[in-house]
Inverse folding.
């Protein structure tokens, strides 16, 4: 019997235990009466696979960009904020095995927990099907145009720098929600005028969203 997540990601595991381990948080393993493997080791491996796939994609997709730009873009693509958003697309949090305490504290929507599980899932796919399977899973999330966490703030700054007298700044304008599920609102200002605003689960994510909205208004980003 297949796991519901396999239907979502479009991949059937040859070794279902790998998927189960990827979805198992340390809190679940610690509370289990029988020995259970958790996903921390897979998270370590998945991070490396993600870094390599992202670097390879950016190297070939942006042949004219210098190393510094590629490094910043990759950092944005593999950040906790980005991974949490990717994980939400496949509803990963709902499939995690959590301990009772972590469940009560909102672990299914905690960015650190869910983004770590996303990396663990990458490792499980890599171990079960090889690099090509892992790459095919990762690329739709990181290709610019779908998620373009890569990197709206930098792109907006480059546009503004064409006019040295223009000053760009980001202002935190509000935050809501409990500690484990904060939402931030940030405005992006050109001189004294707010040109756009953005929301996100961190200040950084909200700034990225605000920058994207500004670029969209300028006709530099497609929907």
């Amino acid at each position: 019997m297949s796991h519901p997540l396999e239907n979502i990601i479009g991949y059937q595991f040859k070794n279902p235990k790998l998927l189960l381990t990827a979805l198992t948080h340390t809190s679940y393993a610690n509370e289990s009466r029988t020995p259970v493997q958790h996903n921390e080791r897979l998270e370590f491996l998945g991070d490396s696979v993600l870094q390599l796939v992202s670097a390879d994609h950016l190297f070939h997709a942006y042949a004219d960009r210098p190393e510094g730009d590629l490094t910043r873009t990759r950092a944005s693509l593999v950040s906790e904020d980005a991974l949490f958003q990717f994980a939400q697309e496949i509803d990963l949090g709902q499939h995690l095995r959590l301990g009772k305490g972590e469940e009560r504290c909102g672990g299914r929507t905690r960015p650190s927990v869910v983004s770590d599980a996303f990396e663990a899932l990458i490792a499980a796919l890599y171990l079960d099907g090889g690099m090509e399977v892992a790459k095919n899973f990762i690329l739709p999330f990181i290709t610019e145009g779908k998620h373009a966490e890569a990197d709206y703030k930098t792109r907006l700054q480059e546009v503004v720098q064409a006019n040295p007298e223009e000053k760009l700044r980001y202002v935190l304008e509000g935050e809501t929600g409990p500690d484990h599920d904060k939402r931030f609102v940030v405005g992006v200002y050109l001189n004294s005028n707010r040109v756009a605003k953005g929301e996100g689960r961190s200040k950084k994510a909200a700034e990225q969203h605000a920058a994207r909205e500004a670029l969209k208004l300028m006709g530099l980003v497609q929907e």
Remarks:
- The longest helix spans residues 40-61.
